[in-house]
Specification:
With 115 residues, the protein is an alpha+beta fold. Helices cover 27% and strands 26% of the residues. It has three helices and five strands, in the order E-E-H-E-E-E-H-H. A hairpin with a 2-residue loop joins strand 3 and strand 4. The longest helix has 19 residues. The model has no long low-confidence stretch (mean pLDDT 89).
């Protein structure tokens, strides 16, 4: 599975926490998330990928009180297995939960792997 993960933290803004092995995940992100950042949670297929937007399952908010949103782009075999938001939450969130818990309230975002 390749995973691109964009989110924000308590004090830091939009950043990629996983790049899916890409030097620059932004073009792929922009193709998969052309819709408004305030759109509700969703799962949509974009070619052989799945674009997934989730409100933080732990209910975390940024310092302005906005619910933190996580956006994932999944490809590979896992993309084909995701059927709806509940399924995606059950399959994807456990893979990133501990990583996010360790970084969300840092003053600056961590560098994504491979940066």
């Amino acid at each position: 599975m390749s995973l691109i993960w964009a989110t924000r933290g308590y004090t830091w803004g939009f950043t990629f926490l996983c790049t899916g092995g890409l030097a620059d995940p932004l073009p792929t992100y922009e193709r998969c998330f052309p819709f408004d950042a305030d759109d509700p949670p969703s799962l949509r297929r974009v070619g052989d990928r799945v674009a997934l937007r989730l409100a933080d399952p732990e209910g975390r908010c940024d310092r302005s009180g906005r619910i933190i949103v996580h956006e994932f782009i999944v490809d590979g075999d896992d993309a084909g297995r995701l059927v709806d938001l509940d399924d995606a939450l059950a399959r994807i969130w456990p893979r990133v939960r501990d990583t996010y818990a360790a970084v969300w309230d840092l003053p600056d975002p961590p560098e994504p792997p491979g940066s």
